Amino acid sequence: MIGTIGLALNMDIVNGVMQGATLLGTEIKIPAITVDQFIVSVQAGLAIMLSTVGMFLALMATSTLFPQMLQKGSIDLLLCRPLPRWRILTARFAGGACIMAFNAAYLILGVWLVLGWKSGIWNRGFPLSAGLLIFAFVVLFSVVMLGSVITENGPVGLLTAFALFMFSPILAAHRQITPVLEKELYRKAFRFVYWVLPKSAETLGASRRLIMNQPMEIGWVLGTSLAFAVACYVVTVMYFTRKDY
Known about the structure:
single chain, 245 residues, mainly alpha, 3-stranded antiparallel β-sheet, 73% helix
C-alpha cells in the first residue's frame, strides 16, 4: 500500500486545489476540493479500512498465540522454568500486542510520510490515530486471551472478540435505543451492558474524528474500555496461575 501510494498515485495540484489524480494509470474522479481535503479523505478512508478489515485480520493473526502455548509439551516446557506464571502470560500478551502495534505504526507512518512528501500536507492527526487503533486492538485482544486460556480453544476467544466488536456499534447508539425500550428494567440493563463492555466502535470512530480535526470527548470511553481490558487480564492471570496443567 505504501509503495502504491508513493509510486502509482499522481496528483495534479494547481494553487492548492486538486485538478485531478491518477492511480496505477487510472484517472480518479475528484470533486473540486483542496489538497488538504483530499489528503484527509484518503487518510480517513485508510482508517476505516484498518478499523474493520485490519482489526479482523489482526485478531485472527494473533488468536493462535495462547492455544499454541497451552498445547501439551509447550506448556510443560514453559512451566518447568523458574518463572512466575503471570510473567509467562504477560509476555505472551505483550508479544501479540507488539505485533499489531508494529504493523499499524509501520503502515500509518509510512502512508503519512509518503502523502506528506507528495502533497506537502502533514496532518498530525493521522499518525496520532495509530494510538487509538492499537488501543482498540489491545482491548479486544484481552478478550481473545481470556477466552482462549479458559477454554484452551482459540476459536472461542476469537469469536467472542468478534461478537463484542460487531455488537459495539449497537451499544454506541444507546442514547437512541434506550428511550424506545418499553420497561425501565430493560433500559437499565442496556445501559449497564453499555458501560461494562468495551467501546470499540466509539474508540475507532474517534480515530477518524482525530484525522478530520473534529472535536471529540473520549476520556470516559477509553477509561471504561481500559478497565474492561484490565479485568480480563486479572481474571486470566488468576485462572492461569491456579490451573493444574
